[in-house]
Amino acid sequence: MIVPHYNLNANSIIHALNGRAHVQVVDCNGNRVFDEELQEGHVLVLPQNFAVAAKSQSENFEYVAFKTNSRPSIANLAGDNSFMSNLPAEVVANSYELPLEKATQLKNNNPFKFLVPPQDQSDSEMMIRS
Hints:
Blueprint: E1 2-7, E2 12-18, E3 20-26, E4 32-39, E5 43-46, E6 51-56, E7 62-67, E8 74-76, H1 83-86, H2 89-96, H3 100-108
Antiparallel strand pairs: 1-6, 1-8, 2-5, 2-7, 3-4, 3-6
């Protein structure tokens, strides 16, 4: 699984080398612009600031990503390194029109500190929150 993320300063060209994965891409307004399977030989162009997430559909999915910037800046949308965990609670509250208490819960409510819990977790414990 590729952690949902976007590039702040680069476009990406993804070339699937082996296997297949389900890929979802949303634009800057949250509109889904791609929600399909990427297979060996396929190429996908991701514009800057478009969010992408992928889940392998085979055990051997491999890809290479080319960026248009030699020092790309990537913002993760989930997991321990998500941009949300680094924002002040007041910014989250104002951005999502939430009370400060709810914004603090949203900002800090990731008990696993990573996107995918270990395999030995039960299904009920595998809920991902970020």
